[in-house]
């Protein structure tokens, strides 16, 4: 039976995608690299380095040192922009759903690719509701590899089959399935249709419904 939930952060509990986008846009403009809001959709859930490599594409050749510098610069812009995140930035349904799960005795972990996940969680004031954190520092291989979610399950002391992953990114659903976990996809079917359950957002999530669907 299901004993744990692993939540992605960006796009699931809060919408930091906009801040990531603005930081990448600023960097791209400075570098004269073409980048748009539409192109940013492809960076959803993708690690910092992979994101930068996707933006660079074949447009320019950079040395490893230049790539490192650009990753740091983008992160500075991002860190500045998340300074003012508050509990009001939790996405609709996130808080009641976390509380519902906790009341049902379900363990909760964070499974985010971000190295800034801890500070975001603290600013959202939900750190006390989370039993374990798997973030951008936890494993080597980024999603769609299962490593991050397997690490989260291990931290919770649970088997993969006892865990449900909640994700908004295609790569995240892939990672959950590769880990042999249950997957709930938030967003359009074109993006997260491979999940066991697809919902528009956490505002539509109810533990009793999910349990009935997955445990039968
Ligand atoms: P950082 P998630 C991901 O968070 C973001 O969706 C993605 O845009 C970002 O590049 C990645 O974290 C790394 O974040 O640069 O802060 O380490 O969706 O896995 O919670
Ligand atoms: Mg995400």
Automatic annotation (TrEMBL):
Task: Name its species.
Answer: Scytonema hofmannii FACHB-248
Q: Which gene encodes it?
A: pgmB
| Protein name according to UniProt | Beta-phosphoglucomutase
Q: Which family does it belong to?
A: Belongs to the HAD-like hydrolase superfamily. CbbY/CbbZ/Gph/YieH family.
């Amino acid at each position: 039976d299901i004993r744990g939930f692993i939540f992605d952060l960006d796009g699931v509990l809060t919408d930091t995608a906009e801040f990531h986008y603005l930081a990448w846009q600023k960097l791209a403009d400075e570098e004269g690299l073409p980048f748009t809001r539409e192109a940013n959709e492809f960076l959803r859930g993708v690690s910092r380095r992979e994101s930068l490599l996707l933006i660079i594409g074949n447009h320019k050749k950079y040395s490893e040192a230049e790539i490192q510098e650009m990753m740091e610069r983008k992160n500075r812009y991002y860190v500045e922009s998340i300074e003012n995140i508050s509990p009001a930035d939790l996405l609709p349904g996130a808080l009641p759903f976390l509380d519902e799960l906790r009341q049902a005795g379900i363990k909760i972990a964070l499974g985010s690719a971000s190295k800034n996940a801890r500070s975001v969680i603290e600013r959202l004031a939900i750190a006390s509701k989370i039993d374990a954190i798997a973030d951008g520092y936890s494993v080597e291989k980024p999603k769609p590899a299962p490593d991050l979610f397997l690490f989260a399950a291990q931290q919770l002391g649970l088997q993969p089959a006892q865990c449900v992953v909640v994700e908004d990114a295609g790569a995240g659903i892939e990672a959950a399935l590769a880990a042999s976990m249950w997957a709930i996809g938030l967003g359009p079917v074109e993006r997260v249709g491979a999940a066991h359950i697809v919902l528009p957002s956490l505002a539509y999530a109810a533990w009793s419904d999910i349990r009935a669907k997955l445990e039968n």
